[in-house]
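A brief tutorial aside. Many learners find it easier to grasp structure tokens once they have seen a single protein encoded end to end. The record that follows does exactly this for Ribosomal RNA small subunit methyltransferase I. Read the sequence first, then the structure, and try to relate runs of similar tokens to stretches of the chain.
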Amino acid sequence: MLVLAGTPIGDVSDAPPRLAAELAGADVVAAEDTRRLRRLTQALGVQVGGRVVSYFEGNEAARTPELVEALAGGARVLLVTDAGMPSVSDPGYRLVAAAVERGIRVTAVPGPSAVLTALALSGLPVDRFCFEGFLPRKAGERLSRLRESAAERRTLVYFESPRRLDDTLVAMAEAFGGERRAAVCRELTKTYEEIRRGSLKELAEWAAPGDVRGEITVVVEGAPEKGPAELGPDELVRRVRVREEAGERRKEAIAAVAAEAGLPKREVFDAVVAAKNAGRGA
């Protein structure tokens, strides 16, 4: 059996009760960072009973077959990452997929999740949301990815490096609009936990000095539902541009935006042509 074990995202006392028993009883413990695993087991007062192997981004592809063979031979393999649930922006997906393909049972020890914790604390709608993981590091690719989600009405959740937070918030303000509400969740459940809420423009100004530290989760409000009367030419052009950048032909993008807005295709087409003539792109 493969067991995915959630680990604390900050406060070690948040460790699920089953975690200690699984660490002691597993035949193999695959850990993203064996040193962090050692600190965790010391804090929990538990001794790992089986063999410990490293399983991180750099060796995930090579080590997966070895772990699958151990599972096929009857071993109980426990997978732990540095924080949160394995395979959620952490190593684990390859191993789960390979185990499922071989007909091996996969289960989990539920634990803390930065995604759900940030979402719950954000003060933004939680009934529908989507997790986008880490954005691309390159500025152009990051902005393009954000523009693809500009019309998404569900609440959006992202992980981000503190080194790129200021640039990412500026890009979000450009792609989504500076007035879109958001929350930056820093160091969740840790001593210096901070939840900063405001518009993307306000948050970008706050992060501008570039001195924000710690592990970061960003939650962004979904796109508001607008009626045809509220969608001005600039918004229509922006929506067409987003679809074009995602790979649609202009004719198809115009038709799709017109259908979304409940407007004649000619009105959207005229807005695009006017923007092009005025040098505003599209």
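Self-check: The longest strand covers residues 129-134. If you spotted this yourself, you are ready for the next section.
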